[in-house]
Design goal:
This protein is α/β, with parallel strands linked by helices. The protein folds into three domains: 133 residues, no CATH class; 94 residues, Rossmann fold; 188 residues, no CATH class. The protein is built from 16 helices and ten strands. The chain has a four-stranded parallel sheet. α8 links the parallel β3 and β4. The protein is flat. It starts with a helix and ends in an 8-residue tail after the last helix.
Length: 459
Amino acid sequence: MPYGPSFVRGTAIGIDAVATVSSGMLSGWGYQQIAPGRFEPSVFFATSVLVALVFILSMRTRNLYETGSLLRFDRQIKWVTACWFVAFATMICFAFLMKASTDLSRGAGTLFAVGGYLVLIFNRLLWRFGLARALAAGTVRRRNVAVLTTGRWAPGAPEFAILDGCGLKVVEQFVIDDLESGRSCGDALHRLVSAVRGSAVDEIVVALPSKDLHQLELLVEGLYAVPLPVRLLPDASLSRIALQPTRSAGNRVLVDIKREPLSALERASKRALDVMIATLALVVLAPLLGLAMLAIKIETQGPVLFRQTRRGFNGRTFKILKLRTMRVMEDGAGVMQATRSDPRVTRVGFWLRRTSIDELPQLWNVLRGEMSVIGPRPHAVAHDNFYDKIIENYAFRQHVKPGLTGWAQVRGLRGETPEVSLMEARVDHDVWYIDNWTLVLDFRILLLTCVKLFAKTAY
């Protein structure tokens, strides 16, 4: 006999409880072996139980132990991280209020926080693949659902795959021939209610296209006679909206159909990384920057620094700083891109451009907040005006601060763009970076930039 959803839920909760308490006890014992000291098993056991309790309750209130949720590894990772943080924050506050913080080792607590989290993540990986295999083999029973639709689903329809991925099995279909007809709706509801009473159906799914949502309230009223949960399966367009964050607006909600590219927390973390890297780089590279300035001054007359107008976040203009590598100081409506063997480049400028040393003054732009270390490379305003008219989504590059280096640059899209297709490829990479930004991605780009620093594509 296959195991039901309640068995899966109880097993998942039990495993999390055992894993959390065991991790806490092992962390206390293990840290004692590394740094001998007083080890109170009762204290670590009580602490572990508290953390496990808060974590499990936090997960349970979000239905994260249901079969469908356990199959979604990405969602599990997100909420395991958040709930684990909440559990530890609660433990720290409780220890402080009970004046028991002196009985807890910081080292053992850190070991517990990291070790327990990794155990829970590994546990989710096992659930993701193990549960999927158990469902396929019939060892675990899927929840049976009856579907109410405006059109019968053919075998192999994508809706079957959607419900299957949630651990659900369609056992009945009821079609409303004419949604605008009260008689047709009533007949379909009557047949559904009669069929599910006393049956093995666990829940009802109402699948409606967004244009027919005005009939949803009528359908739900007709299903009040059945003591089963009723869930809505909207079409793709409405699903994309429903997945967006919401905020309360009285008895209604506001849906974020387009969020800002980076949240406040993401902007703060990226800014902190920028300031740290720019400050360190300026201190370490100050002698090299000084020598480069001296070489420019010896070879040619004129300013050492080149200032040019560029567009930054949301199209705001700023003066980008570079070491002067050319005999010209173009800025304005007519700016010619640098080419290979460009006669405007000085002898010192050739080596500065070759090694990207000419870009170092932009670290000051980073400290001023006009640029980021990682981001889409800013182009001359004249080039922005030209490409914005012929490349779709070109302006999307300005949804974040421009950078010293970016995803396009480490993927080989540097230098001159004599063909529009080359700039289109660069824009595609910049847009991908904005849509997929993480601090890990920034570190990856930074590492790749160091590796490719002397690539021959810059001139």
